[in-house]
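Sanity check

After download, print the first record. It should look like this:
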Amino acid sequence: LPDMISGFRSEHRAISVSLQLTDQFIDILSGACDVAIRISEAPRDKSTIWRKICPVTRMLVASPGFLAAHGNIDSPDDLRPPLCLAYDAEALGENWELSRNGQTRRIRAGQALATNNGEVMARLAENGQGVALLPLFIVEDALKAGRLVQVLRDWQMPQLWLTLYYPPYERLSARIAAFSNFFEDYVTRVRPI
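Expected C-alpha cells:
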C-alpha cells in the first residue's frame, strides 16, 4: 500500500487520503469511509458495491524446522488442529477447507494459536510455531529464502478475492473513481499479487 498510495498522490495531488488499517470487516454503510480494500471470499452483501480486482493465491506453509520436528505432512489427515495457526479477525480460530479430486477435508485451525494479522502469522510460522494458511504475497519472500516451505501443494483452498467495496452510490464520485482505477491498474499491472 505505501508505494501505491505514493503513486496515487503523485498523480492526484488535490485528493486527500486518510488511510486506516484494520483486519476487521468495515461497515461501509456507516459513512466512516468512502472505499474499503478487502481480501475475502466472494461477497454475500447485496447492499454494497463490490469491485473484484484479482484472485488472491493462498497456500499452506510451515518452516523446515517445524516439519523436521513434527514429521512430513503428506495429507490433510497429518494436519493436527493444535499445530495449525489461524488467521481470524477476532483471533478466535478458523475453519480450513482443502479439496483435491472431489475430496474435501475440513480442519479447525487456531486451537493453540490464532492472530488477526497475516504478517505476524507468517513470522510465527517461520519461527516453527505451526502450519499457516496465508496469501502468497505475504509469504513469497520467506519461500524464496527457504524460511518457509509450501505444504500439501496439490490441495486447493477456496478462492479469495482482492476487492474494493463502496456504499451504494448512484454514481462514484470523481475522486473515488480515480482512486479505484489507479488501485486496479497498480495491482494488476504494476505490482501483481
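If your output differs, re-run the checksum step. Summary of this record's structure: The mean pLDDT is 89.
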